[in-house]
Amino acid sequence: MKKITLKWLTILGATTLTALPFCAISCSNEEKEIEKAEKIIGDKELTFKIDDLKYENSDNSILQSARSIAGPWRKDFLKVVITSKSNIEEYWKDNWIVGKIDLKNKAILFLIPREVLLDADFIKEKNMDLKSSYQKANKAYLIEKPKKVYSNLKNKQIWINNYTIFFDDINNDKSPRVSMAIKELKFNFDQDQKTIEIKLGLRYELSQKHNRKSNIFFLSPKATFKYILSEEIK
Fold first, then answer.
1. Number of domains in the chain
2. 112 SS3 class
3. Which own/partner contact pairs does 40-45 have at CB distance under 8 Å and 24+ positions apart?
4. pLDDT tens digits for 77-110?
5. For the segment 20-76, what is each residue's pLDDT rounded down to a tens digit?
6. Which of 3, 17, 109, 226 is 20 to 30 A from 87 in CA distance terms?
7. Are residues 143 and 133 in contact, defined by beta-carbon separation less than 8 angstroms?
8. Containing domain of residue 160, as a range?
9. With the C-alpha atoms ordered 151, 153, 155, 156, is the resulting torsion angle positive or negative?
10. Phi and psi (nearest 5°) for 187?
């Protein structure tokens, strides 16, 4: 019995010992990439607004003005903010935070502004508490972990791959539904005005109020949209 026990302990021990260094190396590399990303970002708080939306392999814009029915095609539909983790609560006052990627000291926030939420029929009243309304409606709350973060200090670029944002009101089948499967999030910090490129699979169903059945904005899983966002210079 002792020999059998010793044999199994040896096997388990060997397995554990070989796995630990791999995990340590992987975690260490991830931490280094995140540290480089924060060095590229710098100390400033940054806000990015939509400049354009197009199909990935097309030069034709499908972006519409802020006066159109609210949806991903609308110029003010989405904002991306890079801020200190200590400031996150401030952004709940006038936005739904529909996505959050944690770095070390900073966070990347994906925001839907209050005006868009009201126009799109996500909320019914202008003065609603947005944080509580979002958490109540969306059980799949803030998926925070993308697959990979890469940083290039020389070119001042950051890539974040495979990050999904999904939200709709699970208690109200009349509300809009949104799914953003981000394939690549690329930050370009090598110019005075910083930019973001987001390659993503996108599905958006209008609310019942806006005639959902005849208005579904999406393509097949193989197709990709591309958002271009530019830094808001104050």
1. 1
2. strand
3. 40/151, 40/153, 40/156, 40/157, 40/158, 40/187, 40/189, 41/82, 41/103, 41/106, 41/158, 41/187, 41/189, 45/81, 45/82, 45/83, 45/84, 45/87
4. 999 999 999 999 999 999 999 889 999 999 999 9
5. 554 555 667 888 999 999 999 999 999 999 999 998 888 889 888 766 677 888 899
6. 226
7. no
8. 2-231
9. positive
10. -100, 125
CB 199 within 8 A of CB 182: yes
pLDDT (average), residues 132-147 = 69
Place of tokens 């397995």: 15
Our measurement of the distance from residue 148's CA atom to the centroid of its chain's CA atoms, rounded to an integer in Å, reads 13
143 in helix, strand or coil?
coil
Amino acid, single-letter form, for residue 129:
D
Q: Which amino acid, residue 135?
A: Q
Q: What is the 3-state secondary structure (H, E, C) of the chain?
A: CHHHHHHHHHHHHHHHHHHHHHHHHHHHHHHHHHHHHHHHHCCCCEEEEEEEEEECCCCCECCECCCCCCCCCECCCCEEEEEEHHHHHHHCCCEEEEEEEECCCEEEEEEEEHHHHHHHCCCCCCCCCHHHHHHHHCCCCCCCCCCEEEEECCCCEEEEEEEEEEEECCCCCCCCEEEEEEEEEEEECCCCCCEEEEEEEEEEECCHHHCHHHCEEECCCCCCEEEEEEECCC
Say how far apart CA 158 and CA 82 lie, in whole Å.
Answer: 13
User: Cα dist. 130→50, 88, 136 in Å?
Assistant: 22, 13, 10
